[in-house]
Amino acid sequence: MPTREFQRARSPEAKRLREDAILDAARRLGAERGIRQVTLTDIAEAVGMHKSAMLRYFETREEIFLRLTAEGWRDWAPDLAERVGALARPDADTVAAAFAATLTARPMFCDLLAQTPLNLERNVSVEKVREFKLTTGDGLGVILPAVRAALPALTEQDGVDLVAAATSLAGTLYQIATPGPEVAALYRSDPRLAHALVDVEPQLSRILASMLRGRIAERTA
Amino acid sequence: MPTREFQRARSPEAKRLREDAILDAARRLGAERGIRQVTLTDIAEAVGMHKSAMLRYFETREEIFLRLTAEGWRDWAPDLAERVGALARPDADTVAAAFAATLTARPMFCDLLAQTPLNLERNVSVEKVREFKLTTGDGLGVILPAVRAALPALTEQDGVDLVAAATSLAGTLYQIATPGPEVAALYRSDPRLAHALVDVEPQLSRILASMLRGRIAERTA
To answer: Is pLDDT of B72 > 60?
Structure first.
């Protein structure tokens, strides 16, 4: 049996199954504890592989999470585009609300969005960064036509600014809104720290709506 | 001499001098290589102290960098408030430009702003987080009156949204704009990756100007 398993794992199909098992374990652990708390050893233990064997499938911990971020873009972009396309009254407020709702419905994606430029893109090969950036480019290619169909005043550059603002803010506000339990208790206990309390979806929606309202005014002035 | 030095270091004055030397070394190394590349051992070596001795002054590497972030707020907030106060024609564009210019003039502060919610606030005591948040609250107390005097339509909440958007975007865009040298070369070499190239100051200024224009329109409608 061990011999047969080993041979199977050398086929492209078996290799993919192993990769999927590793990604599943990383996804589950990341959702449970937050990305920064998950080590390569944790993932190897969860998937029942030796760490050295796992390195045949992924070079680093960061490569695993960068793959999950790419998966997040492929999941988020069509959902957002569909919601924007289905808006009965597309305007700055409803488009902004669609961005905020689809992002905050994906907390692990928000966590990954913040980790990407700081950590994930810095500990993988250049080839993996290229693959990842092609995926985010594909995501833009899905989102921008939907946004520009809904709000025809906007240019391509406006759409790029909107997606950059939405993903950057979603990542950072998510991190600010999910401190450790002790710090969360501190924020609630000290009224001088009220400014540290963040409610991601309404704040993200407000900021993006104002940005869109202003940008539309600039284009139609 | 060693005895005398040791005794001096026990006075509050000597303790402060040691702390300043540690912060100076961390500031210099952080500016040179980026915050994520600086370890506690690097700082100890640069300041010529044993790591164990340094832990008498700062609990963790993150506490050192959180102190530098607080220092960054105390430096940035009055500079921004002064520039906003001195604007000949305060409007959405000029106030946004003042935010973008003062933030991008401080690259290490931008680096620290991105590191803060992800890393720095998660490996220090609750008391240090409280101190830090009181400093950011003081910063808001300097910035908001200047912004509201320049743009009287804005509410306190609008000012909080503006500072949240500005600091979150400055941190993330800075990280995106400063990849490692190999990845930077990749972005320039592959035209399909043009969307990965970011020029922080104009993009930040454009996004904040649209946001301010939209928010002012909402308040004066």
So the answer is: yes
